[in-house]
Design goal:
Elements (H helix, E strand, L loop, with lengths): L1 H6 L1 H23 L13 H21 L8 H29 L9 H19 L5 H34 L9 H20 L2 H24 L4 H4 L12 H11 L4 H8 L1 H5 L2 H10 L11 H8 L3 H10 L4 H22 L6 H7 L5 H12 L3 H12 L1
Length: 389
C-alpha cells in the first residue's frame, strides 16, 4: 500500500495541503482575537482553545506518519505506523472528545475520565510495539468498541441535559444548540475509525483526506458561530438540584445593592415567590419585555423581583419551560400584529412581523410556531384568511 502512496504525487500534495490547512486553522483560532465568520458572536474561549489544540494535533498527526512515505524497510514502516497509532491514542482521540465536551456550556465537565479511559489502549499499543502479540489486538479492539459505545451513551445523556438547561434559561436558542454538530462530528469520527480498521485503496485515502479538510473547516465554523453563554449567564445561582433559599436571597441582595428599592423587594422574597404569576403579567407581558432578544431567565427574574431558582420552579410547576413561556408570548404577539396588519390593509412581510415579535431567526420562529399551532405559518395564515371571509 505504501509503495503506491509514494508513487502518487497528487496524493502527497493533497496530504501536505490538508496538513497545512490544519496547522493554519489552529493558529487562526489561537492568535486571532476577532471573529471573521460571525463578527456579532463571541465564541467560548475554552472551546476555541481546545479546538485549536485538536487541529494542531490533527496536523501533527499527518506529520508523524510522513516518514512512511520515505522508508523502504517493511519493519521500519510497521514501527512508524504503530508509533503513529500510539500518538493518535494519547492526543488525537482524547482531544476530539474534549472538543465535544467543551461545546456543552451548562457546566464544566471533568476531562480526567478521558485520560483514564484511553490509558489501557495506550498501554496496550505501547506494549505491542515492543512485544508484538497478535492475541492482544482483538482485546484492544474490543475495549475500544466498548469505550465508544459508553461514550455515545454518555453524550446522548449529556446532550439531553444540555438541551433542558438551554430551554430552562434562555428565550433564544440561536447559536446555542449543538446537537446537530455532535451528529456531524460523530459521523466524521466514525469514518476515521472505519478507515483505521478497514481502509484500503486510493479511494479511501483520498476520501479520508477530504474528510479531514471538511472536519477542519467545520470545526472553525462551529467555534465561530457558537455563542459564549457565560457572557449572557453572568450572574451565578445555586444549583436547582440543591436549592438553598437563604443563598438565593443573599444573591438577590448582592445583585441589587446599588438600588435600595430593589433590595427591599429581594428581602421580601417569599411574598414575591407566591405572586410570580401576577408579577410576570406586570413586568414581562404588560411591558413586552419578552420582545427583548437573548432575554435570559436571570434577567427576567430580576425584572420580576425574584431569583432564577424560584422563577424556574414556577415554570416547572406550570408544566412548561422558560423557553416555551417566552415563545408563547412572542407567537401571540405575532398573531396580534398579523391581525392588525390585515384589518388595516397595511402591506407587510411575514419576516418583518417575525422580527417585530422578538425573533432574530425566521427558522426558529417557524419551528416554534408549528409546535404551538400544529401547522406551519403559511398554512395558518391561509386558513385564518379563509375563516375571516
Amino acid at each position: 500500500m505504501y509503495e503506491q502512496i509514494r508513487e502518487d504525487i497528487l496524493f502527497i500534495i493533497f496530504y501536505a495541503a490538508v496538513t497545512t490547512l490544519s496547522i493554519m486553522a489552529s493558529c487562526y483560532l489561537l492568535l486571532r482575537r476577532g471573529n471573521a465568520f460571525a463578527p456579532d458572536i463571541t465564541p467560548p474561549v475554552r472551546l476555541r482553545r481546545w479546538t485549536a489544540a485538536f487541529l494542531a494535533v490533527s496536523g501533527l498527526s499527518h506529520v508523524w506518519y510522513m516518514p512512511i512515505l520515505f522508508l523502504t524497510s517493511s519493519e521500519a514502516v510497521r514501527l512508524c505506523d504503530l508509533i503513529g497509532g500510539l500518538l493518535d491514542c494519547i492526543t488525537f482521540l482524547p482531544l476530539a472528545i474534549a472538543v465535544l465536551l467543551a461545546m456543552l456550556q451548562d457546566r464544566r465537565r471533568p476531562l480526567w475520565p478521558i485520560a483514564v479511559a484511553m490509558a489501557p489502549i495506550a498501554v496496550g499499543e505501547a506494549y505491542y510495539i515492543f512485544c508484538p502479540n497478535d492475541t492482544l489486538l482483538p482485546m484492544l479492539f474490543g475495549y475500544f468498541l466498548l469505550m465508544c459505545i459508553s461514550l455515545i451513551i454518555y453524550m446522548v445523556h449529556a446532550l439531553r441535559q444540555y438541551g433542558r438547561w438551554l430551554r430552562d434559561n434562555y428565550a433564544d436558542l440561536e447559536h446555542k444548540e449543538v446537537w446537530q454538530s455532535f451528529v456531524v462530528l460523530a459521523i466524521i469520527l466514525l469514518m476515521f475509525v472505519c478507515y483505521a480498521f478497514t481502509g484500503k485503496g486510493p479511494a479511501y485515502r483520498y476520501a479520508m483526506q477530504a474528510t479531514t479538510a471538511v472536519l477542519v473547516c467545520y470545526l472553525v465554523w462551529r467555534v465561530e458561530t457558537l455563542s459564549d453563554l457565560n457572557i449572557l449567564h453572568t450572574q451565578s445561582a445555586p444549583s436547582a438540584e440543591t436549592p438553598n433559599a437563604e443563598a438565593e436571597t443573599a444573591d438577590i441582595v448582592a445583585e441589587t445593592t446599588d438600588n435600595g428599592t430593589e433590595v427591599a423587594v429581594a428581602n421580601s422574597l417569599p411574598s414575591v415567590r407566591d405572586n410570580i404569576g401576577p408579577l410576570l403579567q406586570q413586568h414581562c407581558i404588560d411591558t413586552q419585555l419578552y420582545l427583548q432578544h437573548d432575554l435570559t431567565i436571570i434577567q427576567l427574574a430580576k425584572a420580576v423581583g425574584t431569583n432564577r431558582y424560584y422563577l424556574s420552579q414556577y415554570f416547572s410547576n406550570q408544566g412548561i419551560t422558560y423557553n416555551a413561556y417566552i415563545n408563547d408570548l412572542r407567537i401571540n404577539h405575532f398573531i396580534g400584529l398579523y391581525h392588525e396588519a390585515v384589518a388595516s390593509h397595511r402591506p407587510f412581510t411575514t419576516k418583518q412581523l417575525v422580527h417585530d415579535s422578538g425573533y432574530r431567526s425566521y427558522s426558529t420562529f417557524t419551528l416554534a410556531f408549528k409546535q404551538r399551532m400544529g401547522k406551519n405559518v403559511t398554512t395558518w395564515m391561509a386558513d385564518d384568511s379563509a375563516e375571516q371571509t
